[in-house]
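Handover notes (outgoing to incoming on-call)

Open items:
1. Nicotianamine synthase: sequence verified, structure written out, both below. Nothing else pending on this one.
2. Nothing else urgent.
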Amino acid sequence: MGAHEDMLVTKVCELYDKISKLESLSPSPEVNTLFTQLVSICTPPSSIDVSKLSPKVQEIRAKLIRLCGEAEGLLEAHFSSILASFESPMDHLHIFPYNSNYLKLSRLEFNILSQYTSKTPKSLAFVGSGPLPLTSITLALNHLKFTNFHNYDIDTGANSMALGLVSSHPDLSKRMFFHNANIMDVSHRLRDYDVVFLAALVGMSTREKAKVVKHLAKHMAPGALLMLRSAHGSRAFLYPVVEPEEVHGFDVLSVYHPTDDVINSVMVARKHWTEPGPGLMPVDTSGLMAIDQGLSPIILLNKCSEVQGFNPLGSMMEEIAVEEQAS
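Nicotianamine synthase structure tokens:
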């Protein structure tokens, strides 16, 4: 590593040491300051390859990602409670500190998906939606105005908070559904979704993420789209990295690495049109281009990417429901 990368790793490790000693990760001036510093250090574009770091730093990175995930959950729960105190929560989403980031990320994801699709997604699933499901809300309000959103989370309390935000909204209350379930326990229902979003922090290690992706590949409908969030360069200290060759059972269509304040990389893949079998050849990702220059996505397609998908047209269905399911 060069001097810049060495300095970056040193700063990250120093912040990890301070964060790991906090009594609580709930929002507070000290917690907010430390995580703001961490994000500001890790956000600028960097060529660092975290897979080549020393075992000690790799261990620190793994622990830091889990701490970031816990803090993010507590932050979202905190603001979900505040938003729920308003008569119309959707009118006050701007009070969440990272709302603009979600607006940009959702627009980016929608634009990328739209390049592969031409028919309506009647149903979309978001796995790991949490207490403040801003991706689903933003897509439903701004981009997919006639699609039904099925949000999955293992945390019953998170789902209850999320339901409280949308239950008074005349439109979202008809299109938002919340399922209390571990996605690894969901099988046949996954075939109902045209698109599945997998939150960055569902499966925080490569092994955990691979298990979830394998499960989705087994049960999603052939031809359905999978949207994954990853991280690139120094941003991999904040979120897990997903490599194209790790997404088995899918044809990876595009990878995009933002260079602005949108932290997550975006990967879109299509479930194989033929069910996995003994003679199925692995997908060749050697020609896939990963964009890291802040440009509009350059999409390199394979044969399966020419199949039609959706556009934001369709019909509204059903009423909001919370489905209790043992995890």
